[in-house]
Amino acid sequence: MRRLAFLLATLAVTLPPAGGLSAQSADPLPSWNEGPTKQQIVSFVEAVTDADSPDFVPEAERIAVFDNDGTLWAEQPMYIQLAFAIDRLHTLAKEKPELKEKEPYRSILNGDLKSLAAGGEHAILEVLMATHADTTTDQFSAIVADWLETARHPKTDRPYTGMVYQPMLELLAYLRASGFKTFIVSGGGVAFMRVFSEKAYGIPPEQVIGSTIVTKFEMRASGPVLVRLPKIDFIDDKEGKPVGINRNIGRRPIAAFGNSDGDLQMLQWTTAGPGRRLGAIVHHTDAEREWAYDRDSHIGRLDKALDEGRNDGWTIIDMKQDWAQVFPPRN
Fold first, then answer.
1. DSSP class of residue 301?
2. pLDDT tens, 83-128?
3. What is each CA distance from 313 to 168, 281, 316, in whole angstroms?
4. Residue 14 has pLDDT above 70, yes or no
5. Crossing angle of the two packed helices 240-248 and 264-271, in degrees rounded to 10
6. What is the pLDDT of residue 25?
7. What pLDDT does residue 19 have?
8. Whole-angstrom Cα distance, residue 43 to residue 210?
9. Half-sphere exposure (CA, 13 Å, Cβ side) for 325?
10. Measured distance CA(197)–CA(35) in Å, rounded
11. Which domains does the chain possess?
């Protein structure tokens, strides 16, 4: 997801000074078009941070949670972590030729990703286990960091860390400058995301919640290590997201941002709390600058959450209409 060359021309926006937003920054969300969506976000932040407002929330309780794939960075044409796993599989196949004879690995190594899709969640988990386990935690972090330095998105030829959304970087900075603590709550692997989350989003690794595999302590000749095993520990998706939030944060968020049905329960849990709440969905409607997809997509499917969001008054972020800019400038 330490040695990364994350070249973000907007670092000053992503990580504002400790004292808050610069006095020169009259608009904290310059990549958001003026309109109801932007106003809903600003109005919420102003209300919960104004000590004289009936909606005021003490700073310690200002928790905002964000899905990652499709909410903070792109997820098409495949999840970025899955792209990493496929590249990693090609590397492992050189060390373990027997992988070339076993499905679903054989098809993937031959460039046939339809078999992987047909195999569903089981096949994807099998690939993730084969490519993410049997290393120490330090080894895995280094492998991910090295991959992110060289891998490029197949459509844009950007580094994957250049596929983050500029408006969401601004939103993260705006919330933190307003006394919020921001968390990632994603179905992606926590060990993968923690490699890049701080430099990409300003979110430190301890504020990243994700899916995990079983890890064990070993004392080796070189010293103590944590070893990643090929066994699922926790899936931080759908019903698992509120569980992960409760387990790792211990407070119900007052704001939640997602983009798919996998985020539905997180949004339900957040908005059901007392006082003023903000639930928001990034709706991918921009086929020209990014992708347009929702109910029929095999990645980031948005169906039930879109309906419930509209019925319950959640903020629906229309990417085409609400974002003046999608990705940060190229370097």
1. -
2. 999 999 999 999 999 989 888 899 899 988 887 777 777 778 888 8
3. 20, 11, 9
4. no
5. 50
6. 53
7. 36
8. 30
9. 16
10. 30
11. 31-76+159-322 (3.40.50.1000), 80-150 (no CATH)
Give dist(CA 127, CA 189) in Å, integer: 13
Buried b (16+ CB within 10 A) or exposed e, 24-50: ebeebbebbeeeebbebbeebbebbbe
The Cα 274–Cα 188 span in angstroms is: 29
H/E element, 106: helix 105-109
> Distance between CA 277 and CA 314 in Å, rounded?
9
**pLDDT score recorded for residue 171:** 98
Q: How far apart (Å, rounded) are the C-alpha atoms in residues 223 and 309?
A: 51
**Confidence (pLDDT) at 198:** 98
The pair of three-digit structure tokens given for residue 116, joined into one six-digit string: 């992987």
Percent of the chain with pLDDT over 70: 92
Q: Provide CB contacts within 8 A for 161, sequence distance 6+.
A: 4, 6, 8, 73, 148, 196, 199, 200
pLDDT of residue 270: 98
Angle at 58 (CA atoms; ends 57, 63), nearest 5 degrees:
75
For 87-115, give one letter per residue: b (16+ CB within 10 A) or e.
Answer: ebbeebbeeeeebeeeebbebbbeeeeee
- Is 90 exceeded by the pLDDT of residue 10? no
